[in-house]
UniProtKB/TrEMBL annotation:
GO terms for molecular function: transferase activity. Keywords: Transferase. It holds the Pfam family PS_pyruv_trans. This is Polysaccharide pyruvyl transferase. The keyword Metal-binding does not apply. It comes from Leuconostoc mesenteroides. Residues 13-300 form the Polysaccharide pyruvyl transferase domain.
Length: 363
């Protein structure tokens, strides 16, 4: 049996949890291993081909001390003892921050310790200096396959062991979710802009939340039910929807939904909705996939690059544009069923290199 250590952002974020779900279901004959906190594991216990090693209290304390000393984490050391192959899957996993050299050290160690190293589903950046780009070019040249999710990232490197394909989640099966006869319902995914953009003015988040409230009031007057949706409590989404909800007063047409473990309920909620106002990247992806009318609100380049690749023109609003705009039907975008299927087939290419490796193995 092939054994593979899979690394990702396992903080009960709907998008990243879908990545792991898709991988486990795509390769049922592969034994996967990963480390995560027990509180974030419930949604993955159904997969017999996934072994979870829990980050308990002692584990976290040791890791914190090792990180302060510049040493590798326990999972970096233990992973190669469990599996010969390494899969890193995630979206914004190559952002330059103050810890980028340490993270690069971990990746270079993985490159040297595992027989195979694959990267799936990512975009590159934002980054701020040439050294960062050059160091990652060295790493990318040495891995066995990397699949970017936007043209911008791919074109920065564009080597033979690299490809560009639509986001992994566009490849999700939609057969059990309806595209027609949707509820007169709008899902609004929110984001904590202050945590996402450290250089923004201190009151941007308040303006953003006030604009969401104005938009909700307009939608409910038009007869829509509204669902304020948190994709990731850890990143502050739940705090945002609670603040907004508390300012709405008594509005029976507004509810909240916090994603935590229940992937199917989250997907059904979006699929049933006529419209999605998407501050979250994967709210935009899922809305388009399920045939909703989507208003993309971009807090970073990754959503802009997603829309640019699909529509070849600007069809999004930045946070500041959203705050200062009168929202109307022209701001919403849509994918036909045929277009969504084409993009879904393209998303299969995210697994081009990993599939190629698997085909060489006699199960």
């Amino acid at each position: 049996m092939i054994k593979c250590f899979v690394s990702g952002y396992w903080k009960s974020n709907l998008g990243d949890d879908l990545f792991l779900k898709i991988v486990c279901e795509r390769y049922p004959h592969v034994k996967f291993y990963t480390f995560l906190d027990k509180k974030n594991s419930e949604q993955f216990k159904q997969y017999n081909n996934l072994t979870i090693i829990y980050n308990n209290f002692l584990f976290r304390i040791v890791n914190k001390l090792m990180r302060k000393m510049g040493m590798l984490q326990l999972q970096d050391i233990l992973g190669p003892l469990l599996a010969k192959n390494f899969l890193e899957i995630g979206g914004s996993i190559f952002m330059q921050d103050k810890r980028w050299q340490y993270r690069l050290k971990q990746r270079n160690y993985a490159r040297n310790q595992y027989s195979k190293y694959f990267i799936i589903g990512s975009n590159f950046g934002p980054f701020y200096d040439q050294e960062y780009e050059e160091k990652y070019k060295e790493l990318f040249d040495s891995v066995d396959g990397i699949s970017f999710r936007d043209s911008y990232s791919y074109n920065l490197f564009a080597e033979k062991n690299m490809t560009k394909a639509s986001d992994v989640i566009f490849g999700l099966s939609t057969s059990e979710y309806k595209r027609q006869n949707k509820k007169k319902q709008v899902v609004i995914s929110v984001v904590d802009n202050d945590s996402k953009n450290k250089d923004t003015s201190f009151n941007l988040q308040d303006k953003y939340e006030s604009k969401i409230i104005t938009t909700i009031n307009k939608l409910t007057q038009e007869g829509y039910d509204v669902i304020l949706m948190s994709f990731c409590k850890y990143e502050g989404d739940t705090d945002v929807i609670n603040r907004i909800y508390s300012r709405l007063g008594n509005n029976n047409h507004v509810k909240t939904f916090e994603y935590f473990h229940d992937i199917e309920s989250a997907l059904k909620l979006i699929a049933d909705s006529e419209k999605v106002i998407a501050s979250r990247f994967h709210a935009c992806v899922l809305g388009l996939l399920f045939g909703c009318k989507v208003l993309p609100i971009a807090y970073s380049d990754k959503m802009m690059n997603l829309i640019q690749d699909i529509y070849k023109e600007k069809k999004w609003l930045s946070i500041k544009e959203f705050v200062n705009s009168d929202i109307n039907s022209e701001n919403f975008i849509y994918l036909s069923e045929n277009a969504a299927k084409l993009i879904g087939r393209d998303a299969e290419n995210q697994f081009q290199f990993l599939d190629g490796f698997m085909k060489q193995i006699d199960f």
